[in-house]
Design brief:
Blueprint (H helix, E strand, L loop, with lengths): L4 E3 L2 E4 L4 E4 L2 E4 L2 H12 L4 E2 L1 H8 L7 H15 L9 E4 L3 E4 L3 E3 L23 H22 L21 E7 L3 E7 L4 E7 L6 E3 L7 E5 L5 E5 L8 E7 L6 E8 L3 E3 L5 E6 L2 E6 L6 E5 L4 E7 L5 E7 L4 E7 L6 E2 L10 E6 L5 E6 L7 E7 L12 E6 L2 E7 L6 E6 L6 E4 L4 E4 L6 E6 L5 E6 L5 E5 L6 E3 L9 E3 L5 E7 L2 E6 L14 E4 L4 E7 L5 E7 L27 E6 L4 E4 L8 E3 L18
Parallel strand pairs: 40-44
Antiparallel strand pairs: 1-2, 1-8, 2-3, 3-4, 5-7, 6-7, 9-10, 10-11, 11-12, 13-14, 14-15, 15-16, 17-18, 18-19, 19-20, 21-22, 22-23, 23-24, 25-26, 26-27, 27-28, 29-30, 31-32, 33-34, 34-35, 35-36, 37-38, 38-39, 39-40, 41-42, 42-43, 43-45
Helix pairs in contact: 1-3
Length: 619
């Protein structure tokens, strides 16, 4: 099927590998388009995985994961929902089915009713003068196109990676450079301090300040001063100081308070900073603070001034997606960048190259996947068309910031690779030893008889079950993406898991079958306002308890706490309490709109209460 056809509101063009509707065009990978065509050719019939493999990948061995990814990308492009599908339905152990009938797109020629034949009709009669004009215009257009096409877009390539530090300490963004040194934040057991390292790598050297907890926001254009403050009190505005380099006493920046989202103008005369929900400007000596404009909904981060000082860019996080924004230096023309770009839903952390010709930013595929670093040209293309981002590199590192060097030849990255290893304590040797082969996972839960274990893959939305000796390992088909570990009910008949920051689900799990698996969830607990984590069963399997609280970061001013996600045990997060609900009910329970008897507050003081543990009182 090569001719265009219609699926619902989408016009599918197989030859062009694109789907389109009014005001929107999406390009698909050729294999993903082939999957769509294969489903369309079977007209609402179930197409097995084997049929899809034979049709789309006839001469290549591929795994189920490749097909699942293709279906997922196809659903994303069509705007489909796996829970309530409108276009593509998954048939358990059967394959996939297109739910919408297709219709061919017929050409609309001009017909001659007298002859019964179709013929094309030109809008005007050709004369020698008109022919000459058309030929001249065509030659001029061809000349312009040749000149334009002979100037190919600049290609980018990562030549090598070089590790600059090896002290193993946790380093926080932002990364700042003056050309010869790199400045960053370092976490310690007593707080956070500033540190530096040569751009060639070497020893990490602490920067002495009078503050126990301090972070940097930006460096002055001449590299002589840092903007610093305790920028780790989540969402709180704190006093801002100017710290001289290479050493000296910090001075207060006027009466400026900020969360740390600040940036010096290229000429060093002004500082743009976040003040409440607005973007403000202040002179570099702290005088004449003024509002520039109001900002879009969501939390703004990473203000960056263009090298010519004409515009500012930043990114926002509204808990659903992150996006890039731009505003003129005078506060006008606030708009979102790459609004119709369909590669990744989370864009952030942009920086200009020193010459201002290119803008570098990151993307994070949702919910998991490698971090991608992109480059987009600032110069408009033919007929004023904006440049398309070009993929610079893809890395498994958890990267925070890709900052160009002052000469524009290198990128400085702050990244790490997380790993978990399952261990058990050997009472005889009094040592921790690898368990289940030391697999990398999280959220381990054992069945009541102690013969089965369920766990999640580290940094991947996959849940597994296996025997405790590691045999009979099988991926569980959990509905929805898994973000936190599973827990077995004490009666061994159900399993509960976190299927997102705002949802906990429970489903039956039959361990007596040959291949225990999950077929459908039974109960969903949702909270659109707060995050919910750390689900656990009561000893009689009648109740589920969990932690519930507002999204935030930890407060490093509290002893023993480091800056991290609020749900992590050991991170102080105000407003978090323990709750419980009945596990004997079915359906969806909305914690923001439920009766008083549907949920119970186990704690009410909001003192960072997390991870409940049930026990039977001794009588």
């Amino acid at each position: 099927m090569e001719k265009p056809f219609q699926i619902g509101p989408w016009l599918v063009s197989p030859k062009l590998n694109q789907i389109a509707q009014i005001g929107r065009t999406i390009h698909l990978e050729p294999k993903i388009m082939s999957v769509l065509v294969c489903l369309a050719e079977h007209k609402c019939e179930v197409v097995s995985k084997e049929q899809l493999f034979a049709t789309v990948w006839p001469d290549t061995f591929v795994t189920d994961d490749v097909l699942k990814r293709s279906i997922s990308e196809l659903r994303k492009a069509l705007g489909d929902d796996t829970k309530e599908p409108r276009f593509i339905e998954t048939i358990p152990k059967g394959g996939y089915r297109l739910l919408v009938s297709i219709s061919p797109v017929a050409p609309k020629p001009d017909s001659d009713p007298n002859s019964g034949r179709t013929r094309l009709r030109w809008p005007f009669e050709f004369t020698p003068t008109r022919i000459a004009v058309v030929i001249s215009a065509a030659l001029l257009l061809a000349f312009v196109l040749v000149v334009w096409m002979r100037s190919p877009p600049r290609s980018f390539k990562v030549l090598a990676y070089t590790q600059l530090t090896n002290d193993g300490s946790e380093k926080g963004p932002p990364i700042i450079t003056d050309g010869s040194r790199i400045y960053f934040n370092v976490a310690t057991t007593v707080g956070r301090h500033l540190a530096q390292v040569s751009t060639r790598g070497g020893e990490v050297i602490p920067i002495t300040t009078p503050f126990r907890v301090v972070g940097s926001a930006d460096i002055s254009p001449n590299g002589s001063e840092l903007l610093v403050g305790n920028f780790f009190a989540d969402q709180k505005e704190v006093a801002v100081f100017v710290l001289p380099l290479p050493g000296g006493s910090p001075r207060r920046l006027g009466n400026v308070f900020s969360r740390g989202e600040m940036v010096w103008s290229p000429d060093g005369k002004e500082i743009a900073y976040l003040c409440g929900a607005e973007l403000c400007l202040v002179k570099s000596d702290g005088a004449n603070s003024r509002k520039l404009t109001s900002l879009p909904d969501g939390n703004p981060y990473g203000f960056r001034w263009s090298p010519d000082g004409r515009i500012l860019r930043f990114w926002t996080d509204d808990d659903k997606r992150t996006s890039l924004w731009e505003i003129s230096a005078n506060g006008a023309n606030l708009h979102q960048l790459l609004e119709r770009w369909d590669h990744d839903p989370r864009l952030c952390c942009g920086h200009w190259t020193p010459d201002g010709k290119y803008f570098i930013f990151q993307s994070y595929p949702f919910p998991f996947g490698p971090v991608r670093i992109w480059v987009i040209g600032e110069k408009r293309g033919f007929l004023g068309k904006a440049s398309e981002p070009v993929l610079l590199t893809e890395t498994p590192l958890d990267v925070h910031g890709a900052v160009p060097s002052r000469d524009g030849k290198r990128l400085f990255l702050n990244g790490y690779v997380g790993r978990m290893e399952l261990v058990r304590y050997n009472a005889t040797s009094r040592q921790f030893v690898p368990y289940l082969g030391g697999i990398s996972g999280s959220g381990f839960s054992f069945s009541k008889d102690g013969q089965w274990v369920a766990y999640g893959s580290w940094l991947a939305p996959v849940m597994w079950r296996s025997r405790v000796d590691g045999s009979q390992r099988l991926q569980l088909s959990l509905p929805g993406s898994v973000s936190t570990g599973a827990t077995w009910s004490p009666d061994g008949k159900q399993i509960a898991w976190g299927s997102g920051d705002h949802e906990i689900a429970a489903a039956p799990l039959d361990l007596d079958s040959d291949e225990p698996s999950i077929t459908q969830w039974r109960l969903r607990i949702r909270d659109h306002t707060n995050e919910i984590y750390h689900v656990d069963w009561s000893p009689d399997s009648r109740f589920l308890s969990f932690s519930r609280g507002p999204a935030s970061k930890g407060d490093p001013n509290k002893p023993g706490t480091f800056l991290a996600a609020c749900e992590i045990v050991g991170v102080f997060a105000a407003g978090w309490n323990l709750c419980a609900v009945s596990a004997e009910r079915d359906g969806i329970l909305d914690l923001n709109n439920c009766a008083g008897g549907d949920s119970f507050m186990l704690t009410t003081n909001g003192a960072s209460n997390k991870e409940s543990a049930w026990f039977r009182p001794k009588r």
